[in-house]
What does this fold into?
Amino acid sequence: MKDKFKSLFSPFTFPNGVTLKNRIVIAPMTHWSSNPDGSVSEIELKYYARRSAGVSAVITACAYVTPNGKAFHGQFAADRDEMIPGLRKVATAIQQQGAKAILQIHHGGRLCPPELVPDGDIVSASAVPAERPGAETPRSLTIQEIEEIIDAFGEATRRAIEAGFDGVEIHGANGYLIHQFFSPHSNRREDQYGGTLEKRMSFPLEIIKKVKSVVDQHAKSPFIVGYRFSPEEPETPGITMADTLVFVDVLANQGLDYLHVSLNDFRSTPRVGVEDFTKTRIEYLLETINGRVPLIGVGSIITADNAKEALETGVDLIAIGREMIVDPDWVQKIQEGREDEISIVIFTDQQEELIIPDGLWEQIISRPGWFPVKER
Ligand SMILES: Cc1cc2nc3c(=O)[nH]c(=O)nc-3n(C[C@H](O)[C@H](O)[C@H](O)COP(=O)(O)O)c2cc1C
It folds into this structure.
């Protein structure tokens, strides 16, 4: 390995005492390939195993915590105990390759397609549709239903513990239900869950509290709890960087093992809500966090030099998404001093060789610009 990349391979210890062998983790990525009932399929086990040998941890695709939270065809489930044996296979497939396994837990809220949820009953913080073509208007959740969903995040955590995962990541990003409660676009409530910035934080904070209490009660060894968030959204009204910095200041005191910002580019700068637009979002977050909790950075880290540059911003860990699909040996190539051999495109004849499940492959080839796809 080249000296300049050594820092990527230094171990990292979470506040709970769990140590990772290096600074590189796989970002959570949905793969549209679980069985229709939410159970785990053979191909997804192979997909994970192929990508788990170099990284120190794998954050899985998001798993739904209640039947009305399913947002993707082929999404896997953590909403009932019968899913535990399949979840155990995912955790084992990852751990056998030497990485820690972290289950991302999720509710899709207003972004769930009606055909995937019972009676097509789509729910959210308020009855406001997403600003997307053809978006459905959701129904506003009752207080009792909100409490049931908070409990469901706790139950999904218990299942993750029983399935042998090393941790969970609470999916509070990318426009899904937890994000919808924090957003002034989707949350127009006037009860304890909405109305002010502080009240919009209640739902995520209660979920964190519930998840942590389940861990205290059920985990026999240290169990990682992380929280993922999106720093801004384009809608008006919408989450601004200023809102996020207030939220992150609170999140940093919740006894979490890490925060994980969701970005498409780790170098991106704020859209609105700050004074200095030359500073990156990561710089703002690190300044606010001030060492209180580890931060995972992500977004368009493609080359070894990108990874080094991302880690030098001061984040504790970096997550790699698309590039791990493009080149499953990305980490090993850097470790072996062969970083110039990293593949940065997927050729259209490589699905089988790269062990990419059908559902994910269809997304890759049908969404131009998302992945670097080429004909040979
Ligand atoms: C195919 C695909 C599926 C994704 N699914 C999820 C998901 O389930 N949960 C999540 O938090 N982010 C998801 N993301 C976002 C990634 O975690 C990551 O933030 C994003 O791809 C930017 O990182 P990258 O440039 O390294 O790919 C997904 C991204 C891709 C490409």
The first strand starts at residue 12 and ends at 13. The chain has a mean pLDDT of 98. The chain is about 30% helix and 15% strand.
